[in-house]
């Protein structure tokens, strides 16, 4: 039986929100999560935040919201951070330092016109290698070569992701469908990736509140159980890595994230009703559906083309269109959608009778690819 | 707008000043050798090679117990990307260019540029030879298609 649950969710409007700040968006999300949970301000005594792109937040929203915070923690493992904040929240509760922990990410990168990767000063810059997208493009090139696939396979992923956002009025790409041709005709950003292989940059914030499953039952909102967690990080796989190379894996390794998450939950992948895979780039979703065994290696394009991924298919994935087409709140985007699906709040793309959700986050960090995974379930 | 859809003027205005080498202090021997025209790899007594300072994944030896030895300089392209637009002003007048992960014969991989061939000719698996190139006044390893 699971010990911890998510007992409050706050999702601000997402998109182009000029005239605000990342810290104000964070505060807005905290207020929404508080209201959703029914907790008093003084009861929320842990605050964990991912600082993000654009203006980096500092945790000030906890004091603006007059929370009873006695522990504040900044967590950053790039795109993998959302689920890592859950892990850190459980750590605070388990250590006895807090009872109700709010986890948050806010960004106003869109209004700040952030060009991710431009002018980076790191060990790759002298070679002209900039941006997470270029690292993803390395993965895509290797994938195409190994499995005799092409950009047309990733186009299927883009089209499917967009199709899930199209009916969702809360999605940035609401009512804006795309075709395979649109993808193929979109400009190259870093070859072989096209513009439509990339995620959005938007303004917005998401907060959720973690507590024990027992305490969650007393709150006003429908709790979502945390059934199992797992992580993996390439940091230990550096044998072939040079002094200046972070990645280029063609075969994505998801162990031990998979076995730990499913092992703790006592579930297998067939038990999952809805999937929310990290999708900063289309190649990431393709590699994950293969690595987690939803289809064979190299078969993601065909698998998506056959109708999977779409919210009303047998294998619904990324039901809001997530980073590609909903909004860019990094890993919090996928957590929020998983929580909503299990609460029956998925709106136009609600998966009927969704009782379990599998959510992943992936981060391109200085020490290699970081992955985190969580299985969420209804009470 | 998408991630990286736009690159503002400040990034695209051409300059002759390249990005600086960023060298971790523990990898200084690798880069000192590059400055003298050589490529070195860290060799563990168990036979494993590394292109940086790190403890041995195979036999648990410390990084300090390894010796820096000359590399063959032979390798193959493991994967690569093509930049058509600049993310730094130095590259504005040097487009398009290839950034590749090159697997050296000894095992380690390095990030570098494939040179001495047209961008369209670069392929995964193609043999390359590591040569010392220049980026402004700095020396860097490059992968030449002329093997």
Model description:
In chain A, helix 5 crosses helix 9. In chain A, strands 3-2-4-7-1-8-11-10-9 form a 9-stranded mixed β-sheet. Chain A has a two-stranded antiparallel ribbon with strand order 5-6. Chain A has helices spanning 22-37, 60-64, 81-95, 132-147, 151-165, 180-185, 213-216, 257-265, 282-291, 300-305, 322-326, 331-342, and strands at residues 4-11, 46-50, 71-74, 101-107, 188-191, 193-194, 204-212, 224-233, 274-276, 356-365, 368-378. Chain A has 379 residues and is of the alpha/beta class. Chain B is mainly beta. Helix content of chain B is 8%, strand content 35%. In chain B, strands 4-5-6-8-7 form a 5-stranded mixed barrel. In chain B, strands 2-1-3 form a 3-stranded antiparallel β-sheet. The longest helix of chain B is centred in the N-terminal third of the chain and has 8 residues, at 28-35. Chain B is globular and about 45 Å long. Chains A and B meet through helix 4 and strand 5 of A and strand 4, strand 5 and strand 6 of B.
Outline the secondary-structure elements.
The complex is a heterodimer of chains A (379) and B (147).
Chain A: E1 4-11, H1 22-37, E2 46-50, H2 60-64, E3 71-74, H3 81-95, E4 101-107, H4 132-147, H5 151-165, H6 180-185, E5 188-191, E6 193-194, E7 204-212, H7 213-216, E8 224-233, H8 257-265, E9 274-276, H9 282-291, H10 300-305, H11 322-326, H12 331-342, E10 356-365, E11 368-378
Parallel strand pairs in A: 2-3, 2-4, 9-10
Antiparallel strand pairs in A: 1-7, 1-8, 4-7, 5-6, 8-11, 10-11
Helix pairs in contact in A: 5-9
Chain B: H1 9-12, H2 28-35, E1 40-43, E2 49-50, E3 67-70, E4 74-83, E5 97-104, E6 109-115, E7 127-135, E8 138-144
Parallel strand pairs in B: 6-8
Antiparallel strand pairs in B: 1-2, 1-3, 4-5, 4-7, 5-6, 7-8
